[in-house]
Amino acid sequence: MQKLLISLVTILFAIVCMFLVIQNMPGDPVETLAAEIAQTQNLEMDLAYARAKSMLNYDPDIPVLQRLANYLAGVLRGNLGESLSYHKPVTSLMLGALPWTLLVLTISLFLSFAMGVIVGLFIAWKRKRWLNALLNVWQSIFGSIPNYIVAYLLVFLFAVNLGWLPSRGPYSAEVTPGFNGAFIGDVLQHAILPVLSYFLTTVGGWTVSMRANAIGVLSEDYVTYATARGLPQKRILLQYVGRNSILPMITSLAISFGFMFGGSPLIENLFVYPGVGYYLNVAISRRDYPLMQGMYFMMIVVVVLCGLLAEWLYTVLNPRLRER
């Protein structure tokens, strides 16, 4: 209960900070639209400004604190406002974008984490020098290159040159959206390159962390004792070394998901993938404050919930914490 209250306070504090930062960003969406209206419709600026305020349903003359109070009251009612550029409720845009982001991030994070744990444990167990060298080279290359650069290279290779995979969009125009094999297969095919972009740049980090944890656990007395008792090697590897090595990585897993969620705009824009990051980038470029606030609100909630989930998983996997 205490952790839940702390999480709610954290979300509230983050929302207030996010709102104040966005409201003080340079650029006024009403002035931008008013200038466009005045130019295209040959109107006086005052009249164009009034028309822009009416079209956007947004009044910059209202004090910021009053706007903040109105926004928080709307959040409590589940009303996050209406997008200035799409003229749709922000909530519906969020719910439409969330599944696409979760699809790519969940698959890529699960694959990179699972692969990193298995390979890291194997390298620590075998203690082969060439495997360590190979891992260090991989991490030096892909750990230092931003994921959007890797994404550009993948598009250039697999979409432009080889033509094996699609480079944009969540699915093809030829398929009918729905729960059918053709649509699901097409969606998965379009998700391959975004998933691969995340996977290649994160799997090395998980492998290095797991290798370091496993090497530390292998030097513990209880592992030596288990070996002296003649327990099977497979049991020592999985129950003694693997289980204790993976515990410190659970918290990192949740934090990584939050970072990937926040870093999705570049990848999703490159692939024209209609997820949270894509809409956030559109909102920033058009100064669509309600949509921007909605997408950041979703990111804040996801990161905090991931932290709670990590603590729960850590408690489940570590019986000593349940006894306290």
Automatic annotation (TrEMBL):
PANTHER family: OLIGOPEPTIDE TRANSPORT SYSTEM PERMEASE PROTEIN (PTHR43376:SF1). Belongs to the binding-protein-dependent transport system permease family. InterPro entries: MetI-like, MetI-like_sf. It is found in: Cell membrane; Membrane. Coiled coil: none annotated. GO terms for cellular component: plasma membrane. Pfam families: BPD_transp_1. The lineage of its organism: Bacteria, Bacillati, Bacillota, Clostridia, Eubacteriales. This is Oligopeptide ABC transporter permease protein. Keywords: Membrane, Transmembrane, Transmembrane helix, Transport. Residues 98-310 form the ABC transmembrane type-1 domain.
